[in-house]
Structure formats: structure tokens, C-alpha cells
Design brief:
Structural class: mainly alpha
Distance between the termini: 12 Å
Number of helices: 13
Strand order of the largest sheet: 1-2-4-3
Number of domains: 1
Largest sheet: 4 strands, mixed
Helix content: 55-70%
Shape: globular
């Protein structure tokens, strides 16, 4: 856990060092007036996204918040986990889609919401569901949705600077060559910072997995739930997957990678029971992973860690 935190802190330093470097270059090459406009505009867009984001998620996923007397077992699970995590009990929503998954969002701790889909309620058992809810509760406790939102403004700022310089600045202006170099540098840093934000998104999934275990959920139950979610996502119609493509960063797993992940994970299910138990998780812990170049490249461009690596990490918690 220490090394995960260290990676996140180093990543924050690197990302803000990048934006500081670009600020300095732009200020030197073209003055600071235009730069201030893009900074203000970018943070205004960020604030709007932050405030209306929950409504967009609710609308996109068709979330209906449960009422008193409904889903009593689900309500009890969430309340107990919130008490264990020492945060306010979040609102609980259900999305009537077949894709099995869960997600958490909200503007601050008291505004937290945890939602499950109809698909996950029909797929996992009680302990597996509690492990998934513990994962989502940890996202709320860590406030990592806010962190990712704040980090996401950095690529946005870099893109706006690069676009402005490379496509709108007049070529005959003084120091044109130097300014163009700044624009190219900003464009390169935009791609780099975007990869770093994706990396931060993957780290937060490891944090949430660890958080679920710390809330009392056995690692093999979360691993088994992930295995079932991958299986269920792989069977979901492509039309439904396309409808939620823009929200997959919120999910427990990446549905668009499910088919490939299932072909890998089913090899861990030694008894072909459709679940992963302690013995199967121990087997993975003692096994060395050999990811090929394609797997590494796919993970590099993903909001979620490679699933084999993720479950391998869970297997190490089982040995602690």
C-alpha cells in the first residue's frame, strides 16, 4: 500500500511540474494574457463538469434511488460499510441495465452515491456483492473521483494551449518559431499527461481493491466478483456496451476488455465452478505473470489495470 501511495504522490508532482513548465514557456514566448484566458476557461469547464457530472451519470445510466423499505439487504450492507469506512452513508441507486457492474460518484463525501446495476444483483452472491460495494465505498472515502477530475484538467489545458498556438497564432508574429516550438511541446506534453492521468486512474483501482479488503472483505471474494463481472460483461450485447462507453472509468472493471480478460481468467478457475476460491487465488500468487507487448500496450491506454495483474495483487493481500 505504501508503494501505491508513493506512486500516486510522485505522479501528482510530475503532472503539476508539467503544467508549471508549460506555463513558464508560454509566458516567456507569447506573454501571459492569453494564457490566463485558457487557464480561467479550463477551470471554469472543470467546475461545470464537477457540478453537473453526477446528473449526467444518473441520466446516462438511468439511475433510480431506492426508497425506504426497498432492497433492505443492500441498504444494510452499504450502511455497515460506510460505518466501517467512517464516512456518511451514501445514497443508493439501482440502474436497470443488464451489464453487471457498480459505480460510485459524487461531489464530496456527504454527496456520495453508490449504484449497482440489475445485472450485478442477478450475478454475484452476497459476499461478492459486499466486496464490490467495499471497493466503491473506498472510492468515496479516498475522494479519488475528485482527484481524477482535477488531474484531468491538465491535459485539457495543454491541449487548448497547443491548439491555440499551432492553429490560431499568426505566423508572422515576432518570435514565431519559438512560439511554434512551445505549441509542439504543449502538444507532446498533452499526450504524455493524458497517459499519466490514465495511469492515475489505474492506481486508484488498486487503492479501492485494497480498501475493500481493509473493510473486512476476503480478497478471494472480490477476485471472484471481478471474475463474474468480466464473464457477465463479455456476454452483454455490444449495443449496450456502446451506450456506457463514456462512463467505463466509473465501473469496477472495463467492460470493453471483458472478452479478452475472461479468456485469461477462466484458466484460474481450476475446478470450473465459475468462482475463484482461496486455493485458486493462492495458486495465482505463486505464479509469475508474463504479459506480452499487446497486453502492456492495452493496459497503457486503459482506465483500469490489467485484470490478471489486479487479481495477482489481491492474492498478495490474502497472504498478508
Amino acid at each position: 500500500m505504501f508503494f501505491l501511495k508513493l506512486r500516486m504522490y510522485l505522479l501528482l508532482i510530475v503532472l503539476f511540474a508539467i503544467i508549471y513548465s508549460v506555463v513558464s514557456m508560454v509566458a516567456y514566448a507569447m506573454g501571459i494574457s492569453n494564457f490566463y484566458f485558457y487557464i480561467i476557461f479550463s477551470f471554469l469547464m472543470l467546475f461545470i463538469q464537477y457540478m453537473i457530472g453526477p446528473k449526467i451519470v444518473e441520466w446516462s445510466m438511468g439511475v433510480r434511488y431506492i426508497k425506504e423499505g426497498e432492497y433492505s439487504e443492500l441498504r444494510t450492507m452499504v450502511a455497515n460499510l460506510a460505518h466501517a469506512a467512517e464516512i456518511p452513508v451514501p445514497r443508493i441507486g439501482v440502474s436497470e441495465i443488464s451489464l453487471p457492474n457498480a459505480f460510485a460518484f459524487g461531489r464530496w463525501k456527504k454527496d456520495g452515491r453508490i449504484c449497482v446495476t440489475r445485472g450485478i444483483l442477478n450475478l454475484v452472491d452476497r459476499d461478492e456483492l459486499r466486496a464490490v460495494l467495499g471497493h466503491e465505498m473506498s472510492h468515496l472515502k479516498n475522494r479519488d473521483v475528485l482527484t481524477i477530475t482535477l488531474l484531468s484538467v491538465i491535459p485539457f489545458v495543454l491541449y487548448r494551449i497547443a491548439f491555440s498556438i499551432l492553429f490560431y497564432r499568426r505566423r508572422d508574429e515576432r518570435s514565431g518559431s519559438a512560439v511554434m516550438l512551445v505549441g509542439v511541446a504543449a502538444l507532446i506534453l498533452y499526450f504524455v499527461s493524458n497517459l499519466l492521468v490514465l495511469y492515475a486512474s489505474r492506481i486508484r483501482e488498486y487503492f479501492a481493491d485494497r480498501g475493500s479488503v481493509k473493510l473486512g472483505n476476503p480478497p478471494h471474494k472480490l477476485a471472484s466478483a471481478l471474475y463474474k463481472l468480466v464473464y457477465g460483461s463479455a456476454r452483454t450485447p455490444k449495443e449496450e456496451l456502446r451506450q456506457v462507453e463514456g462512463l467505463k472509468a466509473f465501473f469496477v472493471n472495463d467492460p470493453s476488455s471483458a472478452a479478452k480478460e475472461f479468456s485469461e481468467l477462466k484458466q484460474l478457475d481450476l475446478d470450473k465452478s465459475g468462482t475463484l476460491d482461496r486455493q485458486e487465488l493462492n495458486f495465482l500468487n505463486n505464479k509469475k505473470l508474463n504479459l506480452n507487448f499487446g497486453d502492456k500496450l492495452m493496459e497503457l491506454m486503459s482506465t483500469h489495470p490489467n485484470m490478471l495483474k489486479r487479481i495477482k495483487q489481491l492474492s498478495s493481500y490474502a497472504q498478508a
